[in-house]
Structures are given as structure tokens and as C-alpha cells.
Amino acid sequence: MSSTYGKILKIATFGESHGLGIGVVIEGCPAGLDFDPDFIQSELSRRKPGQSRITTQRREADEFEVLSGVFEGKTTGTPIALLIRNEDQRSKDYSHIAAQYRPSHADYTYQAKYGIRDYRGGGRSSARETAARVAAGALAKLLLKKVGVSVQAYVSQVGTLKLEKSYQELDLAQTETNDVRCPDAAMAQRMFDYIDETRKRGDSVGGVVTCVAQGVPAGWGEPVFDKLHAELGKAMLSINAVKGFEYGSGFAGVEMYGSQHNDAFFTDENGKVRTSTNLSGGIQGGISNGEAIYFRTAFKPVATIMQDQDSVDQFGEKVTVQGKGRHDPCVVPRAVPIVEAMTALVLADFYLRQLANRI
Amino acid sequence: MSSTYGKILKIATFGESHGLGIGVVIEGCPAGLDFDPDFIQSELSRRKPGQSRITTQRREADEFEVLSGVFEGKTTGTPIALLIRNEDQRSKDYSHIAAQYRPSHADYTYQAKYGIRDYRGGGRSSARETAARVAAGALAKLLLKKVGVSVQAYVSQVGTLKLEKSYQELDLAQTETNDVRCPDAAMAQRMFDYIDETRKRGDSVGGVVTCVAQGVPAGWGEPVFDKLHAELGKAMLSINAVKGFEYGSGFAGVEMYGSQHNDAFFTDENGKVRTSTNLSGGIQGGISNGEAIYFRTAFKPVATIMQDQDSVDQFGEKVTVQGKGRHDPCVVPRAVPIVEAMTALVLADFYLRQLANRI
Amino acid sequence: MSSTYGKILKIATFGESHGLGIGVVIEGCPAGLDFDPDFIQSELSRRKPGQSRITTQRREADEFEVLSGVFEGKTTGTPIALLIRNEDQRSKDYSHIAAQYRPSHADYTYQAKYGIRDYRGGGRSSARETAARVAAGALAKLLLKKVGVSVQAYVSQVGTLKLEKSYQELDLAQTETNDVRCPDAAMAQRMFDYIDETRKRGDSVGGVVTCVAQGVPAGWGEPVFDKLHAELGKAMLSINAVKGFEYGSGFAGVEMYGSQHNDAFFTDENGKVRTSTNLSGGIQGGISNGEAIYFRTAFKPVATIMQDQDSVDQFGEKVTVQGKGRHDPCVVPRAVPIVEAMTALVLADFYLRQLANRI
Amino acid sequence: MSSTYGKILKIATFGESHGLGIGVVIEGCPAGLDFDPDFIQSELSRRKPGQSRITTQRREADEFEVLSGVFEGKTTGTPIALLIRNEDQRSKDYSHIAAQYRPSHADYTYQAKYGIRDYRGGGRSSARETAARVAAGALAKLLLKKVGVSVQAYVSQVGTLKLEKSYQELDLAQTETNDVRCPDAAMAQRMFDYIDETRKRGDSVGGVVTCVAQGVPAGWGEPVFDKLHAELGKAMLSINAVKGFEYGSGFAGVEMYGSQHNDAFFTDENGKVRTSTNLSGGIQGGISNGEAIYFRTAFKPVATIMQDQDSVDQFGEKVTVQGKGRHDPCVVPRAVPIVEAMTALVLADFYLRQLANRI
């Protein structure tokens, strides 16, 4: 198991879906940063369950406690431990699946790997763990804000409904105005209806979250292995239910010729080197080039559905997994703050790493 | 800069395109493994330039020297250093671009990050660095073979030409029978012609490499951050020119419902837990489930083209970057062994990591 | 700041002396280990303040809470988070030193490094942090016990009172029979009186803790940098107030000739390779050789004394630091479980690391 | 095996005593540093064998080759690979000990750990590996010089001959004026005679190297685990033949009272916070306080002696290990540049790490 992430700004998350709580220890945050608990709480609230009828009905306030690392409102350079107690544990809901392997969940693989698992709500494999990431990511956002970097994600696809506009054509300030977190109001409504209808059928559906980071100067990213997009990719793929990642032109770029795909350099009015197009997605050779960084992350339909499914149990016997409990019919609306959090953690770490670049 | 990869089986690569050579130090390889220099050389030869008229005409034998870590034909548990001397350096070819920023290359970002760069052939940012990865990956393959794991990649798309067959429908033994490394002979010929025509126009085109790992038992991968697919994704995205990664159902899975997407478990005739479909791509919750692992990696059209392009130089002045030198019109045929190498390194590392899973 | 330790069995500690609490996240503990809360509590009680009149009178029950990672009495392979709430915080005691730099404390250096510090009781630099290490170390002891390894430390010197007997001449089972934790009863009494007299004078005094690990098989330790004794040395030197470390013959070995110092090999009745002497301290070339591992750790007199001292404050002004508050007149009795804990963590990590040694 | 060291400035060493060569890959060196090959060569020459009749007579020029990372005389931020070819391999000298376990060498432990070993000259466990450290350390010295930090080591004890003067009482510029590397000429002569006499008897003897780092500002070191002295201790203990480490007052400090041991703060004429004594050794709470950092490292008598010794072979049979070959009768004269190199690497790494301390 590896529950740590980052090189200088490092996080170690812990906790299970139905244990006492979820938390994170953040190490390497520079001293002297204003610690804004309200902002962190607001980010947690964007991720918490029960926000609308298209998200799971589990009830969690997701309030956090600061155990260490903050003094008189500022970070002190010491580890910052944040704890979110679990409230609505309802362990009884899960007793019937103690020995069952739910299809496309991690029940079987955890059992195969460890020989034991906390089966309640998926235990450690539950997306509840991402609450800890969001709390840590909120702190990373505060650090990035200090250096002029913003991170904004939004839902760009639900099932077959795909927002064809690029991020430049959208008003990202509209993202939080609807439950789907799609900045295009008309599309947001269509997506909501799509998800709600899926929910009513007891089914689930996938989606895509697009993320844009602006204000990153040229020079972040550590090739040849820790390329900026490689680390972003890993961070995104580490989120529950993610199946794919692409940045800049992505998979569509495959079909282009180099003469179409190359981004021409020019010098702007301020003497800054820019590119006239941005198929590079703001990253060249694994290093930011000063343009906007953008990427897309694909989420599968969540595995929990309200339908009976064939499966086996720990003893290899055939069982029927029954569809009950609570679930998200589509994970992407709540995934938006998680994508932002992981992006912020990656970028903040690269910000700190590049401080030692030059003599 | 981060030129190290892996947790237990770790590699540290070094070298520039036109320096003395390229190399790798491999640490953490278990002692007692038969070191097969012929196999390593054969893998290097699959990656080396000048294989056919659709690859770059740079001439490199890519022969390697074992500097340490092998004794009487076996690994000793100590660091294994491999060195590949550069032969065809032709530094003069590059003098004209010393101060130029070639579009969609890493010239500008390296200069912005470090304030200095070895401009000859892209220096450290050249894909020549991947020779070191292929050498190390060959050793990882030898280790994996001991535990019954194979890794096979092939070209599944070139530009708009897409192989619609799944890996199960293909005979992967055919991959090496053609210059494109596509296991479908008819498609391989079409792809060859497509690339060759692109080359004649002085242009380049993108492609996709699909990779399949078979024989991985259930239990490899280290969630919550070092999920098997997250690490594979990072490894792929760290390869030059890669723009996207997806595993199992990938981006297409977004459009499915959970009821279609879930892989039903069953117990096979040997009492082994299996899934009847494999949209999970052999990985659930970030841990291998015993099914074949497969994923797709998208490569952009290479940035070097034989056409004049507008750009700027280090002083911000407008320049025309002239298309000369040698280049790969399409990188995917030579990327196949690189994808395999990085996959093997990731899997071998997870193999070693999971040895400490249980009491 | 670096509050993480270990490669496979990793700990991340957090917390300040007068914050909400102290804790640790333990990652990499194998699944299936019996989690014995009583044993962990008993180890914490060996370290806790207020045990006798020669230890600080701060009152802390040092009871811990398991936040994650344990299910039905066993470890699950997921991160184990343990939290010890601070009770007797008495922050007011420390307000008078908010701006003062106490001599030979970390007040000045934390301020110089971070520009901010939690001055209450030394904040993060307080030895209170070691409670988290003892809790984690207790778990490491449970793991080591499974593989037949024991770790026992004891006080071998207080000020000028030096126990001249080697560990073989002592009955280590006697260590816990007295407040000093010296296994020689007569010497223990002399040490107690020495410390108590020092305490009455408002002064403090140094000491040495000797530690012995038995049952470690040949093969643990990872040269060339992570030599077994190098890692033990780092672990010991990371404990508050430690000034020196030596293993086997140590500094005294300097004065010997090679012909005296070399440990002759022989084969014992069971066919096991042994050494007839053990000046190597159970470690050769950085790897355990199957003999007992032993080493000595030097602790300085604690910096807190009940006497007035000249110093300066944050503004560079001369101040008199007044001796008040609570303190340990000699740290070594309470350091014994800390030394054992760090030793156990180092050894358990090396146990897990060596599992990947050979094919 | 762990042959990597450092967090930001990282080294990976490789090579065996009688393989093709020894080398190091240095990662994380900032770009733009003047690369001074003459200085690096001069440091290697301080360590190389055959310097006088009190060092081993093995002949090695120890000339190095720069494989990567340097362009037009400057570091580029990319990995710097340095290779030192072995010349005087004389493998035949060692064939008689292929199956023997030399007393207090690493033959047995390497065999026990890996099941295979390169027995020629100790293979990887040979102190020849430290040549790579000295080359890397020379680069670290160049970096430290840029920020005003110097590192100077010297021999302060050989066998029972102990230099009682503190570093302040010595003229460290005299260190290189004699073969022993003791800055006190009279003591140097006595030590030389002592070593030479020991050599004539075919024996060996231990010694102590003292090291002083000056110019380190307050704020380097990363508690709670990577305390400055903890990392220095690990680095020293990772050097072949080291048995102990102490800094500041060290083991002698144990016998002092706190009232004697505490270093009083004062503000000097420049407004800088200083301490009037320096028993802290320049480090408080694991962080440099701006005073000189000093420590002592104990080396055992080297295990190779020119005398017959009882031992066993790989089959457990009794053998007589014959004293032949070449050896250092006392390791400390050649250890001086190694101690400096490791110290420089540790300090340079902490210099780079602390750049991210504060917002």
C-alpha cells in the first residue's frame, strides 16, 4: 500500500469508509502561509455526499479538525494533520456483502493482496478517502494562489453528452452554479436529466472532467520521469474510477500531422515568449511553457448499481449481489473538487521542487 | 530534474543526445538472475534508429557495456550500470539551432527552467535517452519471465488508420514481422505506406501503441496513490511525445452504463476467480485481478518536420526554423520496445513491492 | 521538515507539545499482524512523564486511539493512524518564554529556519513527539517478534557513573525493575541517587543507553549507504538530546590493532557460521551477521534547568531565562523505550526490505 | 542494496573493486555551476591509493571521465555521470580467497544476503567505492563554496595517539602538508611512525577523523528525522570501517551537567545571534545555528592484515586466511577526503532542501 504522495509537499492519507475517520498528514508546506479553515471547509463541502439528488444520500458533514502544524493562524513548517470523523457509518448496510465480491469493485483484489479486508463500504478502497485529498489540496490551492496560479475543473462529458466547447469558450465562473458542475447552463441541465434518469433506473454512467491551470510560469516539471504531465496523469489515475488521462491535443492529436500540431512561438507585446496555438497543453518536454495547462480525465460508470448482479464470494461460490445501499449514479460532479485538489498538490509540489533548479 | 524511477527496482538514467553516451544504473535487481546480454542487445536493436526507411537515418549500433553488478553471468544484487556510447553525434547538424526554439520541442522550456541547455540534438530531452530505459527494461523482462509474466506491445493506430481488433483477436507473435510493428499484416502495410507518404512530404504523424501484460497474478499494485494503472500511466506519459493514456475501457468506457461496464466474477474450472469480461483492463481498485492487463498510449506527431516554421530565438527575435536533419516521420514503430520496457519496469517493481504485503 | 522515516515500513509523525495531540501514520505494515493495543499502551506507559520523582511531573495518560488500519483485531495492510491527545497542556507556563531563546534548545534555530514557531513547550521540537515513535515502534516490535527478533535497551551510564559490564554479563530482564532502567540493581540505586541529587540542585545530567537486538539472522541491512548500523545511527541521532552513537567496539575500537579486533569465524555444532568474538557488533559490511547487534547512544544533559541563564530574545535583546516549569533531570530512563522503538522500526524495515534480495 | 543518497542532490554510485570501473550519477545539482574538473581530480588524488608508504600500494590513477550533464564548462541541471575506470585489477591476487570468509570483512554477510558475491577484492564492499563519493563530494564542495561554506577534515587520532587540541587551536591549512593529514606537525610525525611500525608488523590500527564545516548559516537541517547531525551521522557511518560518530560535546558531554553544557546566547557586534560556547557543535534541535559544525568519526583497524587467521569457507570448513596482498595499515589518512566528501554532500543537500522552507 502506498498512501503517500509528493516529493517536497507530501501527503499521507489514512482512514476507511466506515472506520473512525479519514485524515491526512501534510508535510513540507512552507511556513508562514495563512491557514484559511473556511476555505478548506468550503472545498470539503464541494466534495461531500448528499449535495443533490444526483449524488449519494450518505450524510456526512465532513467537518475537519486541525491536529497540528498551525499556530496563530499560520503554518509553521511542521506537519499539518487534519482529521475528518466519519458520522454516518451505517455498517449494518454492508454486512450482507462481507464475503461477497462486488463486480468491478476492489473487494476481490484487496482480499487477494492482503488476505483480509475491511469490507464495510469498501474500507480503504472507498472514494471516501478522497476527502483527505480535498482537504490537503485546498491548502495547496492557498499556496498556489500566493504565486498566482489558479486551478479550475469542470464536467465536460456525462455518458454520451459531450461539451464540445473548449475551456477558452466557457465561463468557468459558471461551474458552481449548477449541481452537475458544467459551466454551460444548457448542457448542465441536459446532463442533470441524464444522470437523474440513470439513477432512477438504478444504473450509473461515466463522465469526463476537464481541468485548467492558469498562471503557471515556464519552468515547472521535472523530466525525464517526473514530467509535469506524467505526474498529473498519475495523480488523476490515482483517483477512484479513473480510466484515462490526456492533455493538450491528447488522443485526438494522434490523427494530426506535425505541421498542423506544432505550436508556433512568437514574442508578445511584453517580450514574453508565447505560442500561437496550445496543442501542447501548456507543457513541452515535460516542463510548463507558460501557457494554460489543460487536460481531461475519464471516469468510468461507478460500480455500485441498484440491480442484481452475478458474482462469487470468498469461497468461490456463486452469489447474487443485490443492489441496495446508497450510491452516486455519476461520479463526475463530486469528482470536480477532487481533480482540482490533486492538480493543486502536483503543481504546488513542482513549484517547491523548481526552487532548487539553478545556482 | 528527476531521472530516477521505481521504488525497489530503481533506475537512474543519464546522458544526452550528443554527449559521450547514454546509460542507466539499475538498483534493486534481485541477486542470482541470469544476465542475458544477447537479449538486452536484441531489445536495444528493436529501438535503435535506422531500422527501415520509415525511421530516422541516424546511425547508432547502440551496443552496451556492463560496467558493474554482474559476476559470472549472474546479477549480484549490487547496482548494474550499463553504458551505450554515442557514435553518430554529428553535432554540426545542430549548430544552426543553437539559439533557436524549435516549435513543440523542449528547447524553450529547458532554457526557461535551467538558464542553459545542451542544444545539440535536443540534449537531455532527446528520445535517445529512452535507449537506457530499453536496456533496463530488458532486464526487468528477464525478471518477469521468471515469474511467468510477459509484456507485448504493438502499433494499433497511425494517424487516422486504426486497428479495430482487440488484442485477443490478434496474433501478437506477428508484431515483429513488419517494420511498423502492427500484428495485422494488411493494416501494417497500409500504415507503412501512410508513414512513408508522410515522410516524403517532410511531415510527421501520430500513433497509438497498445500494450498487453499477461500472467500477472492478482495482488500487484499499491493503492491508494501507486495504483497499478496510475504508475503505468505515469511511466507511459514519461515517454517522449506521449499525450494520453487509457486502460481497459478507457475513454470509451465513459459512455457506458454501470450495468454494461461491470465485469461479472465467476469461478473457473481450476477454482480460480475470473471475470467474464475485462473492461477493468485487469486492474480493480489499483490492484491486478489476474486478468490480462492492457492499455493504450497516444503519441503525438513528432515535432521535427522537414518544413520551414516560424519561431523565435533566445533573444525573442523572429526566426525561421528550417527543416533539415534526420527524423522519425512516425514514432510509434520504435516506441513499441520503449512502451514494453517501461511496462516491464513498472510491473517488476510492483512484483518486488508486493513481497512485503502480508505477515 | 522531515517527519517521515523508513522505506517500506514508513512512519509519519505529527503534533506539537501543546497542540491538540501527537500522532503517527504507519504505512507498510504487513496485513494480518495481530494488533495488540495493550502492548502498545504498555510501551507508551514506559515513556510517559510522571513515572517517578526523577522524571518530569507533567501529567499525561498517553492513551492512544486507533483511527484506521485495523479490522477485527488485525492489521489490514492499510495505513494505521494512531492519535494521542495532549491533556496537561498548561500553555500558560510557557508564555513568558514566547520571545526568548532558551539556551541549547531549538527556539532560535526554529525561528531562524521558519520565521515562526509554536513556542509552547518547544512545540514540534519537544521530546513529546517521541510518544508517536514509541507507539509505532511497539507495532514494529510485534512484527519482529513474529520473526524471532527481540530488542532490549537499558541505561548504562548516568553522568560519570558507568556500568562497566557488557550486555552478556547482565540480566536484561532486570531493566524494568527500577526507575532508572539499569539492569544492575546496585548501580541503578547509585544512578537514581545521582539523578535525584542533580534534580534537587535544579540541574540536569547526561547518560548513555545501550541497546541489544537478538535473533536477527544474517542478511539484514542495505549497503552501501543504508548500512544497518548507518540507519541505526541515524535513527538514534534523530532522538532529542542525542550527541553520539557507536556500535560494536565503537570509539574504543580505534585503539586496537586489527589482529586484536578481527572476529574469527567458526562453524558451530549446528553448522551455523558464527564469530568467536563480536567486536563487529553483529554487523559486517553493513549487513547483520547473525550475532547479537549492540550499540550505545549518548544523551546530553537536557537543556531545561531550574536555574537562571543569560540569553537573548527574538529582538536580539539580552534576557535572563528563568528556570521554572517541569523537566527531566536526566533523560535516559525515559529514553530506553524510545531507543527500543526506533531500533525496532529500523530492524522491521530492513526485515521487509530484504525480502526482495534474491530471485 | 541501497546505493543512492540524498533527497534533492542525489547520488547513485556503482562499481566493484575489480570490475570495469567505479562511478556515480549525480542528480539534482543546480544548473549553471562552474564544473571544475581539475578540482575534482585533485580531490580524487587525495583519496587514491599509493600516496605514501603508509597507504596501500595498489596503483590507480583514478582519473575520471564526464559522461553527461556538463555543457560548455557548466552543469546543465541534468544528471552528471562520472566514470573512473579500474586499472590495477590484479584479480589473480584474490583467487585464493574465492570461497574463504575473511575475518571482519563483508564476505560472509554478502554471501548470506545475496547467495552470490564478487569475491575479487571485496567486490562491491570494497572501499574503492568511495572514489565515486569523493568525485561527487567534490562537486558538492563547489556548490557549497558558492554559498560560503567550507568543509575541512583531519586526522585527530591514530590508535592511542590522540590530538588533544580542539579545531580552533589548530591551523587546518597544515592538514595537507603531511602524509597522515594531521594539522599538528609533531603529532603527525608520531602518527606516521606509529602507522609505519604497525605496517611493518603486518598489522593495522584504527583512528579518528574530525571534521569542521564553517559558514553554514542558521536554518539547515530537517527535523524531526532528518536532523542535520542525524544525516551527518548516517553519512559517516556509511563509510567503510566506521564504528562511531559524535558531534559537539559527544560522548564526553554525557558526564556534564546541563548548567555546564548549555551554550549561552548573545548578540554580537553585527547584531547576529551567537553562542558563547559551542558544545552544541553548531546544531540545535537538528538545525544549524550559525556556529561551526564539528564532529568526530571513529574508524576501526582495517580487517586486512598480513597475518594468518583462522576462519571458515563457504562450505563451513575451517581454513587459514593467509595475509597477502596490499592493504592500508591505517585507513584514516585516506579517509579524510571521504569524510569531507560525504559531509559536503549532506550539507549541499540540506542547502537545497531549505530553499522551500518559507512562503
Task: Outline the fold blueprint.
Four copies of one chain form a homotetramer.
Chain A: E1 4-5, E2 10-15, E3 21-27, H1 37-47, E4 64-66, E5 70-71, E6 74-75, E7 80-85, H2 107-114, H3 130-146, E8 150-158, E9 161-162, H4 185-200, E10 207-214, H5 228-237, E11 242-247, H6 258-261, E12 265-267, E13 273-275, E14 283-284, E15 287-288, E16 293-299, E17 309-312, E18 318-321, H7 332-353
Antiparallel strand pairs in A: 1-2, 2-3, 3-7, 4-7, 5-6, 8-9, 8-10, 10-16, 11-16, 12-13, 14-15, 17-18
Helix pairs in contact in A: 1-3, 1-7, 3-7, 5-7
Give a short overview.
By secondary structure, the first copy, chain A, is α+β, with helices and mostly antiparallel strands. Chain A contains seven helices and 18 strands.
Query: What is the CATH architecture term of chain A?
Result: 4-Layer Sandwich
Distance between the termini of chain A: 37 Å
Strand portion of chain A: 15-25%
On the 0 to 100 scale, the average pLDDT of chain A is 95
Low-confidence parts of chain A lasting 5 or more residues at pLDDT below 50?
none
Number of strands of chain A: 18
- The name of the CATH superfamily of chain A reads Chorismate synthase AroC
Shape of chain A: globular
* H/E element order of chain A: EEEHEEEEHHEEHEHEHEEEEEEEH
When the domains of chain A are counted, the total is 1
Tally of individual helices of chain A: 7
CA-based gyration radius of chain A: 21 Å
Pfam families (chains A, B, C, D): Chorismate_synt (PF01264)
Binding site for FMN (chains A, B, C, D): 124-126, 240-241, 285, 300-304, 326
Keywords (chains A, B, C, D): Amino-acid biosynthesis, Aromatic amino acid biosynthesis, FAD, Flavoprotein, FMN, Lyase, NADP
Organism (chains A, B, C, D): Rhabdobacter roseus
